[in-house]
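Go through this pair.

…
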Amino acid sequence: MTQTGREVHLASRPHGEPTHANFTLVETDVPDPVDGQVVVRNTFFSVDPYMRSRMSSAKSYAAPYEVGQVMHGAAVGEVVASASDTLKVGDSVTHALGWREYTVADSNEFRKIDPTLVPSESAYLGILGATGLTAYVGLLDIAELKKGDVVFVSAAAGAVGSVAGQIARLRGASRVIGSAGSAAKIAYLKDKLHFDDAFNYKDGRVHEQLKNAAPEGIDVYFDNVGGDHLEAAIDSFNLYGRVAVCGAISMYNATEPVPGPRNLGQLVAKRLTIRGFLVFDHFDRRAEFAREVGGWLRDGSIVYDETVVEGIDNAVDAFLGMLRGDNIGKMVVKL
């Protein structure tokens, strides 16, 4: 198999907001597969907020990306060459070796998928992938959603937040409130995703806008943002409120330590629970998630949107745009 493919490498570690200078596009040879390996031509790969933290050398839950090496993350593609007994040419797969046009690896690095079940196989990166599972586990297992709860979701028009809000509604929340960063996103949350209320955090203090949206308080906060959103949620919580901490995108580009919420004393008086989580610890929930969310997807109870950027040449633009909040729903790169 005489072929070349392109991949995006980390050129340098960013200080503050990443720029194009931190990445480089490299052409590499695509080797033939050896025993147990397959070659996959990627069709879509994902860009996600957590990737920003892995560009840093700081110790975290996952090893940092290495300077001079390819970036990586979730992807879907088609097997185009195989030396494996378990995957054959033509199979569609998902894997964690994206940011490249071709992936060569042992077959156990890939999971076979059925592209006929979805309008686009990119759904396996979003609503039916780790993104959807994150929303499902965070809301139901970590925040322990109960019927009748008032739920607040930050970054609610993004990949995870848009799913979390819909699951809350379908699982019996009495009220679902979202925050986002533009008028178009607020309209999207209310008109298409059927949030009960939503506000633009750029229009005023989050504390006051949340109080107006939830005058009787909230019971669950699905946190994608941290910072002033978490502080506002603590102020608005009813007794025994629960926070599922999925991310803190407001802090990812900070160059100095970011002050924590100033009202943590309320955790005691209100008997609040704040719990962080990683979806990788909850893959045992995949089957139940696929059954329930897949059913909602098939009958139209839940909807999903994608922001699709064409071409690996534009992958960095997609990533930087996602960090700025340019996307509605899941941001993916189509190859």
